[in-house]
Request: fold
Amino acid sequence: MAREGAEHRQLIATWDRLERRARDLIELDQLAAGDPELRAQVEQELVAVSAELRSRELDLLFTDPYANHNAVITLSVGQGGVEAQDWVEMLMRMYLKWAERKGFEVEILETSPGEEAGLKSATFIIRGSRAYGLLRSEHGVHRLVRISPFDQNHRRHTSFALVEVMPELESSDESAVVINPQDLRIDTYRSTGAGGQHVNKTDSAVRITHLPTGIVVTCQNERSQMKNREMAMKVLKARLFQRQQQEAAVQLDQIRGQVMPAEFGSQIRNYVLQPYTLVKDVRTGLEVGNTQAVLDGDVDPFIESWLRWRLSQSSPAVR
Reply:
């Protein structure tokens, strides 16, 4: 409650400051008649106030009760073989770059290397203001079309990866998830690494399988088996909590979005690098031609477009 109160006070103060800037701008505009220097100052402040207003409008789009939580992200390989494994690694880089732009903290919990290149899967947490509220737009299947660097004949390949986004639960939320210890199978194994001194010599990595649901969570980032187990349990609770919310929702995509196979026809976004360059969101219709900028972490246009689209949906389940 204390945190919510502080957030509300900060929100009110932010809108008060914006209102004062707008009033000052009106007064400055009245004084700027016939003064080129003042007119340039008005134009500059108008751009700044408009940008601030758009940013504050975006705040109003966060209708999800878990919007201000941190985000737990799991990437999984779909159709496409080695190409798809490389695509998983590209997506991970994209989200890490996005987090870096935002000044958010990232904790990598687990990565599973591919046979030849890339990653089979990865799980990481992005911590920052409204991380989940922003990144929930990324949940779904992402499709890549390009000339494969792994094909000696330089043919165009299509590959898929699944992005799952969940809120990191706080202590008050975790109490809603009850786990029977008998429903868990806990395995330990040696963490994989780049070799040399970075290879863990003990079985510190932890894999937890929730038998009733088949959910599997692994963590190998910490050197301590106990810490890996604690973090794996935290992720497991987040996934079970998400599952509970899905089952309680009128529509399955109230919290997480529909669960779809990572294959043709199920993607939420297409990244086309050949024969032309275009990133298009299937849900909102937003298109961006600078694919490299998107892959370098410029995902905000898609996030904002999705938030506005989500809010515009008439179904009560997606409000």
Remarks:
- The longest helix spans residues 2-31.
- Confidence is low (pLDDT under 50) at residues 194-199, 314-319.
- The chain has three domains: 2-59, 71-168+250-318, 174-248.
- Residues 2-59 form one domain.
